[in-house]
């Protein structure tokens, strides 16, 4: 099966798994909170998206050279993904946090108004919007470094 022999793809997928696994101990070291939900979350240190696209670009560089068109494609793809993670998705998370805060303030205001009029509260339960969508630049850099180091290590030490 050719797909299972595609080293750049396999390295990129391995980097996603490793970066997701690294999020738990890194978060524990920073906060002293053990949170397994990070295994299946966006955001956090390191960025698994950045690790994957940088591993992919690095592997393609090793296999096809820095001057190849396929490396150019992979490098531009990596740059766009990392830009999106640090700008677009990060800002969307900030907006979600503001909306969640506004919702809580409005709920409290309406609860206070109901208490003065004697009405009972019959509000719908709403989950908070997800705020951990994007990454800080340091998380993207760490993910990128994870991908480059893993792919380079494979080609330098394990490739015959």
Automatic annotation (TrEMBL):
The keyword Cell inner membrane is assigned to this record: no
InterPro entries (UniProt xref): DUF212 (IPR003832)
Record key words, sorted: Membrane, Transmembrane, Transmembrane helix
Pfam families from the UniProt entry: DUF212
Transmembrane segments: 47-80, 140-158
The UniProt record lists the keyword Membrane: yes
Coiled-coil ranges (or none): none
Protein name per Swiss-Prot or TrEMBL: Acid phosphatase
Organism encoding this protein: Caryophanon tenue
């Amino acid at each position: 099966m050719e797909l299972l022999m595609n080293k750049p793809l396999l390295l990129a997928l391995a980097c996603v798994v490793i970066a997701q696994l690294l999020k738990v101990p890194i978060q524990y070291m920073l906060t002293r909170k053990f949170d397994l939900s990070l295994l299946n979350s966006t955001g956090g240190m390191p960025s698994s998206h950045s690790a994957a696209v940088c591993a992919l670009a690095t592997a393609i560089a090793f296999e096809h050279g820095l001057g190849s068109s396929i490396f150019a494609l992979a490098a531009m793809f990596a740059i766009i993904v990392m830009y999106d993670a640090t700008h677009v998705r990060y800002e969307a998370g900030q907006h979600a946090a503001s909306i969640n805060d506004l919702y809580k303030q409005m709920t409290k205001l309406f609860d206070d108004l109901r208490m003065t009029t004697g009405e009972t509260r019959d509000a719908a339960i709403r989950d908070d919007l997800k705020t951990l969508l994007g990454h800080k630049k340091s998380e993207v850099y760490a993910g990128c470094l994870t991908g480059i180091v893993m792919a380079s290590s494979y080609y330098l030490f394990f490739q015959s």
